[in-house]
Specification:
With 420 residues, this protein is mostly helical. It folds into three domains: 1-67, no CATH class; 74-194, Orthogonal Bundle (DNA polymerase, domain 1); 202-414, hpI Integrase, Chain A, CATH 1.10.443.10. Helix content is 50%, strand content 9%. The protein contains 16 helices and eight strands. α7 runs parallel beside α16. The N and C termini lie far apart (76 Å). 26% of the residues are buried.
Length: 420
Amino acid sequence: MARLGKRKFGGKECWCVFWYDYSKGSLKIREVRCSAKYADNERLRNKLLRKYQDKEDVIKREIRLHGIKKIQQTDFIIDDLIKIYLEHKNKLVELHSIGKPGITKESFYLTTLHLRSFQDFCIINKITFTSQLNSEMINNFRRFIELKKFATPTKNKVFSVVKTFFNFYRYDEIPKFFNVDVINHLLRNFRCDDNFAFHFTTEQLQKILKEALIHDSEKCKITRESKKDNSQPDKAKFVPVLQHILLFMLTGMRLSEGLTLRWDDVDLKSGIIRVKSNKTHKIRIIPLVNDMHANIAPTFLEILKCWKAKSKSDYVLPHDNSTKPYNLQKPLIVFKNSVKMPDLTFQNLRKNFESYLISFGVPSSIDAIWLGHSPAVAEKHYISYVFSRLQGKTIEQAMQIDKILDKILIFYRTDKYLIA
């Protein structure tokens, strides 16, 4: 096994990692100076030692699979490399489960899923060995992903996972077998041109809230998709959507901010919401009423009071027998397909809120503070000027959803839905 020790270099003692290169016919001890790897203290030296212990394990596994002659070659079976890489990732999952540095099960699942796209490409093009991977093939893989019906961030995530897979062998495990720098350059990210400004029309906003109210009042059941661990999907069950839609439509929060919002962060007397951003790690204030720039959502404040009176949780949004509110992304996909609103996403609700604020006359500097980003980001990606709004006295009236909000308030007070 690899071990730490000292050796003199130029008359000066230096820490080294001594490890066994099992890929040679006779065991050969190799050495790596810790200072060359910037391991200048005990913690970093131990981390470097563990890295080379893992390297020994990987080479031994390769020998068991292919024998010494095979591992001395520079040509490897791609499926075997992926298998070894996923075994390494699975170890990190186990470490994470016992509280040590590692990765989550969700991250491991996404890594496996994105590597499967690369495996599918290799199968289609009959690529088995690493020697078959050249610039032309990597460009073909790029076009292969480009034609997939993925969102641009998902395509870029596939590239990121594949590049990490190649770099794993470049730096840590098996000696370099082809030019990884070329691959990293060819698998550069797509430009996210779909990150454009957006707003819903007033008619669309009315339809979204009306359909969500009907869905919650009639307790419509939604069948969830298959779980990540490939087990059987849950049976059809009622998943409320109205509370999520209302919160994000009338506050413009990010999804992570809404899911972690607690009642302690909401002052129902003054109508102020204190948002703790998981992205910027800053705290900001969203005033729902009585702000000098806009009276945003007085009716929604009354709805929040109804939620608080019935809530048995520390969190504002409803939760599904867990410590935190459930993520509504999958049920929202089912809901938006049922009401034929493909643009209904939490990010678009955030963009919509900002667009109405700007059109209502709120200065972009104030608007950016409320939503937690810079005016430049707002101008580039969020603000879409709305011409179908009413001026009104509140943002609710500008969106022309004040009447449907009155019905929603009655629904939460009486549990009765008054149609028209």
